[in-house]
Amino acid sequence: MSDPKVIVALDFPSAMPALALAQRLSPELCRLKVGKELFTATGPSLLEQLMKSGFEIFLDLKFHDIPNTTAQACKAAAGLGVWMINVHALGGRRMLEAANEAVSSSACRPRLIAVTLLTSMDQSDLADLGIAQTPEAMVLRLAELAQDCGLDGVVCSALETERLREQCGQAFCLVTPGIRPVDASLDDQSRVMTPEAALRSGSSYLVIGRPITKAADPLQALLDIHEQIGGLA
Ligand code: C5P
Which CATH class, in words, describes the domain spanning 6-232? Predict the structure, then answer.
């Protein structure tokens, strides 16, 4: 089985455009990310159809609840046969350990990663929550906690990967959105990196949405990204 580094974000409101886009891509070249909007609209049947076409799925539902509820949700997600799921590290140690235990006891363990701090949050958002630390310090701290609880990795900004790779070692999985190929539009992303720079700085997987999903020829856009990352993939 190949291990494509690109995860295409299927940010669509319904099954039809998501399936139409997937049909134009190849499971040899990418995995697919299904998030809250699409999953809420379509439910697990869409996942089944995508997996039947050979795609591995990152189910991006960012669970965050009391330990038992989160563990049961993770168990249910693992039962869908997806490749990767995630939870919020801010749920704390007991929630992270419960989530890890739940997926570890499932027949086919998905990779379990944590969201550290949402990249939309800055110092003033943390201050509002009564947290005096910087966002950077919080990211490192929450990644350390996730690793300590047995999780496989974290979602992070590509700008954080170098420091996280140093702290967490080579085996820890770093999944990075905010990727823009050379010459691509930034859309609403502000702090971006190219696919090549992100992999060089330590990313394990690149989450890329609109540069592929909005391209006139999505497969060609994906192939161009593969060309840019060449020997790093
Ligand atoms: O279209 P684009 O490449 O900007 O899509 C990026 C994807 O990664 C979207 O699904 C977005 O919700 C997700 N994401 C992000 N930044 C984060 C976490 C997730 O852009 N910090």
Answer: alpha beta
